[in-house]
Amino acid sequence: xxxxxxxxxxxxxxxxxxxxxxxxxxxxxxxxxxxxxxxxxxxxxxxxxxxxxxxxxxxxxxxxxxxxxxxxxxxxxxxxxxxxxxxxxxxxxxxxxxxxxxxxxxxxxxxxxxxxxxxxxxxxxxxxxxxxxxxxxxxxx
Length: 141
Known about the structure:
Number of strands: 2
Helix content: 25-40%
Low-confidence stretches: 1-5, 126-141
Number of helices: 5
Strand content: 5-15%
Number of domains: 1
CATH topology: di-copper center containing domain from catechol oxidase
Mean pLDDT: 80
Structural class: mainly alpha
CATH superfamily: Di-copper center containing domain from catechol oxidase
CATH class: Mainly Alpha
Shape: globular
Largest sheet: 2 strands, antiparallel
């Protein structure tokens, strides 16, 4: 693994209220190259080239696999997908009558849209979910 980006001067945050930035993740201060975690990726691989994780590489991925090849931390910010992380979608889910119904709703739109809106390494794909399910099932045996 290449050296870490070192010490960075990030604005302390307890969490990212994605509902405030829904539909405009690209402009979020969380993804700001100076005060946040760096901006959108560039090029075909979507590698981050600014902020504290600029040009950082590791051997994680794709998914949760650890391999021999180095990969950049990448992002493919997608404001169209991030819209569904908005307050109106969360409010819709909060009106569900049971926890299970709420969880299924929240996982489908607000939560997944946060991952998909940032894209790259934080995006949740069907392949990754399937491999995690297999891993959990194996752990339970």
